[in-house]
């Protein structure tokens, strides 16, 4: 049997049109968009065309988008750039944020954890969707604060709304784009300063843009509506799998059941079992799943996204995350259910 991949929240295969666009750009659009000769101008034209197309899809102005290499980089630029103006003032942070978001906040002096909102809170940080549980979160209302949203997991899975935030980050490789292209979105007029010097991206992110990756991202964005509707239709498959597993009466719990969640994600707590051991057994049986964020795998620390929901460290270590690709088929999910039944 071919291997089956249920780790879409870590990365998804790039859309064929993105693969094609990257290949073509590497052959044809390899020039430096900052160069002033014709080759460079052509590359710049393609770059700005991609920016316009992506901005249109997000409902923002093209000049508000900064191309980065990853959401991790975008989050670092975001917080390091806000830090001189806001780093000494209170920031309210959702405790389940990804480490890519928490790490650059380390040198901020007054961090409070949502739902606590300190007086004079100047920045609020709330991810749109959690990578491990798939739970969707609303931006808290904090008048006057700069609102930061990590959309890395939500993009391409659920509709995006940027009206409730001022800054956001997006990752290309989780929505059908290639690795190496991600976005930082900045509403105009923020107290934000660039930290990576250089003339590119209107001096907001130095370094020659990875044009092939960016053109691949633009190609994937052309299929965003289709991706979103495929993802939306996964709810039936995902809920069916959860109902079957709960029906075994083996004490399994679905984390976030009943809450609004990404349609492709199921975080299953197999009480008394070791999530890593189960993940390895599933891998050997032909199924790629995760025990939490791929960025954390290898680390033995229980997931803070799970413990913040009130689960113990032991329970957090018993969680397996299934995240379906948009084109997952019923037969594949049935095969996964059979393997889980056999191995638990
Ligand atoms: N934010 C969230 C919620 C994520 O899930 C991830 C990756 O798993 C990131 C940020 C980092 O994204 P990237 O791989 O583009 O650096």
Q: Main sheet?
A: 7 strands, mixed
Note the run of SSEs as H and E. EHHEHEHEEEEEHHHHEEHEHHEH
* Strand neighbour order, sheet with most strands: 2-8-7-6-5-3-4
Unreliably modeled segments: none
What is the mean predicted local confidence, pLDDT?
96
What ligands are attached or bound here? pyridoxal-5'-phosphate
Give the structure's gist in a few sentences.
With 344 residues, this protein is of the alpha/beta class. It is built from twelve helices and twelve strands.
Structure description:
The chain has 344 residues and is an alpha/beta fold. It starts with a strand and ends with a helix. The mean pLDDT is 96. The chain is globular and about 65 Å long. The protein has twelve helices and twelve strands. Helix 4 links the parallel strand 3 and strand 4 (111-113). Strands 2-8-7-6-5-3-4 form a seven-stranded mixed beta sheet, with helices on one face. It has a three-stranded antiparallel beta sheet with strand order 9-10-12. Helix 2 runs parallel beside helix 6 (211-221). The relative contact order is 0.17. The protein has helices at residues 16-28, 38-58, 71-86, 99-102, 200-203, 211-221, 224-232, 234-247, 275-284, 304-307, 313-316, 330-343, and strands at residues 4-5, 65-68, 91-93, 111-113, 123-125, 146-150, 167-171, 182-186, 252-255, 265-270, 287-288, 319-323. Pyridoxal-5'-phosphate binds next to helix 3.
């Amino acid at each position: 049997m071919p291997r089956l991949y249920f780790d879409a929240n870590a990365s998804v295969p790039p859309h064929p049109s993105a693969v094609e666009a990257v290949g073509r750009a590497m052959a044809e659009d390899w020039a430096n968009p900052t160069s002033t000769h014709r080759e460079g101008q052509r590359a710049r034209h393609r770059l700005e065309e991609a920016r316009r197309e992506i901005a249109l899809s997000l409902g923002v102005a093209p000049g508000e988008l900064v191309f980065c290499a990853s959401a991790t980089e975008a989050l670092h630029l975001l917080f390091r750039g806000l830090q001189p103006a806001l780093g000494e003032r209170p920031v309210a942070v959702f405790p389940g944020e990804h480490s890519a978001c928490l790490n650059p906040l380390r040198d901020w002096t007054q961090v409070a954890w949502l739902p606590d909102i300190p007086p004079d809170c100047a920045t609020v940080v709330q991810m749109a969707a959690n990578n491990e549980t798939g739970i969707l979160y609303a931006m808290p209302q904090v008048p006057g604060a700069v609102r930061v949203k990590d959309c890395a997991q939500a993009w391409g899975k659920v509709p995006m709304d940027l009206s409730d935030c001022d800054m956001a980050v997006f990752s290309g490789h989780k929505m059908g784009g290639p690795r190496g292209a991600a976005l930082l979105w900045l509403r105009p007029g923020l107290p934000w300063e660039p930290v990576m010097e250089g003339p590119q991206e209107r001096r907001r992110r130095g370094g020659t843009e990875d044009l092939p990756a960016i053109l691949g991202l633009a190609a994937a964005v052309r299929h965003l509506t289709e991706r979103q509707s495929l993802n939306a239709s996964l709810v039936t498959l995902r809920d069916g799998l959860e109902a079957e597993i709960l029906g075994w009466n083996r004490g399994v719990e679905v984390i976030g059941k009943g809450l609004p969640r990404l349609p492709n994600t199921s975080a299953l707590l197999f009480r008394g079992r070791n999530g890593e051991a189960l993940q390895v057994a599933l891998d050997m049986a032909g199924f790629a799943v995760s025990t939490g964020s791929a960025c954390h795998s290898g680390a033995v620390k229980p997931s803070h996204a799970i413990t913040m929901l009130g689960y113990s460290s032991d329970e957090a270590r018993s969680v397996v995350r299934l995240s379906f690709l948009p084109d997952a088929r019923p037969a594949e999910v049935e095969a996964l259910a059979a393997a889980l039944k056999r191995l638990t």
